[in-house]
Design a protein that fits this description.
Helices cover 38% and strands 17% of the residues. It has one domain: Rossmann fold, CATH 3.40.50. 42% of the residues are buried. It contains ten helices and eight strands. By secondary structure, it is α/β, with parallel strands linked by helices. The radius of gyration is 18 Å and the shape is globular. α9 crosses α10. The chain has an eight-stranded mixed β-sheet, sandwiched between helices.
């Protein structure tokens, strides 16, 4: 199955638009070497920029290669909420239309970027985890903090991790404030929403792994959720310390032609830099 992206580049041209750096080996590598490293790994986080066309192409290639080498491979997506897992499963089973799936599973506006992977999963009968917290829950936390979740009925926790949800401190909190620019009550509630997303995705992945032992998981999320092994990755590692986890930080950068890898090695096990000159998948 061939994957295409909106840039119109052929595969040979696309392969010139990214560079992969292995932090441990301190050298550039191929995507196949990441796949080989998954032999002793349970979960691979791919931290993306949501509008990176080349990044989406690489995610799809990685998913395909992982499945080829490890038939028991599943995809986990920040882009779908836990409460639409039935719609995801129904679409993968071929019993509902794509039109119904996109509408009722509340697919992101750029679903076309993830469609090749979902279609591949459907074609090869692979599982896809709808991993994130639904907007109604994140909105409640943004308005009232994590305590707002205490008012929800027990049935809501079919789709949410158990309370209390830890609010990560230290470096993750510092990064968040650097991004939003300041400390105030409004920012803290938004930060608690970030922690809800992280906790929900970690919970969804961990629940899946416990029910599907031996299955490798490729988790896709915005890179803030997993850079520096923080966020979702940290919560998953805390929930299940026995898991072996690797992470990719993928982004476009102006240094593409001659990257200073040392600037980025704190971000993950692998750094992928894509060519910023390539058209974004959406603006």
């Amino acid at each position: 199955m061939m994957f295409t992206i909106s840039t119109g580049l052929c595969a040979q041209e696309i392969n010139k638009q990214y560079k992969i750096y292995d932090v441990k080996k301190q050298k550039t590598i191929s995507i196949d070497e990441i796949v080989n490293d998954m032999n002793t790994t349970d979960v691979l986080f791919y931290g993306e920029d949501h509008n990176d066309s080349i990044g989406h192409y690489l995610e799809a290639e990685l998913f395909k290669k992982l499945n080829t080498k490890y038939p028991k491979t599943a995809l986990s997506l920040e882009m779908f909420a836990t409460d639409v897992q039935p719609e995801m499963d129904e679409f993968l089973a071929g019993v509902i239309s794509e039109k119904n799936f996109i509408k009722e599973a509340r697919a992101w506006g750029n679903y076309s970027d993830y469609k090749p992977m979902v279609d591949y999963a459907k074609q090869h009968q692979l599982q896809v985890i709808a991993a994130n917290a639904a907007t109604r829950y994140s909105n409640a936390v943004t308005m009232g903090g994590l305590k707002a979740l205490e008012k929800f009925p027990k049935t809501s926790f079919n789709f949410l991790p158990a309370l209390p949800i830890d609010t990560a401190q230290g470096r993750y909190y510092e990064k968040f404030n650097e991004t939003l620019g300041g400390h105030n009550m409004g920012t803290m509630k938004i930060y608690q929403t970030q922690n809800l997303w992280d906790a929900t995705m970690a919970w969804a992945i961990n629940k899946f792994i416990k029910a599907n032992k031996g299955t490798k998981v490729l988790q896709l999320n915005g890179r803030f959720h997993s850079d520096e092994k923080l966020g979702t990755l940290a919560k998953l590692a805390k929930a299940n310390p026995k898991l072996k986890i690797l992470n990719i930080s993928s982004f476009s950068d102006e240094s593409f032609s001659n990257p200073d890898w040392g600037k980025f090695t704190n971000l993950g096990d692998y750094i992928i830099i894509t060519n910023p000159a390539v058209k974004r998948s959406y603006q």
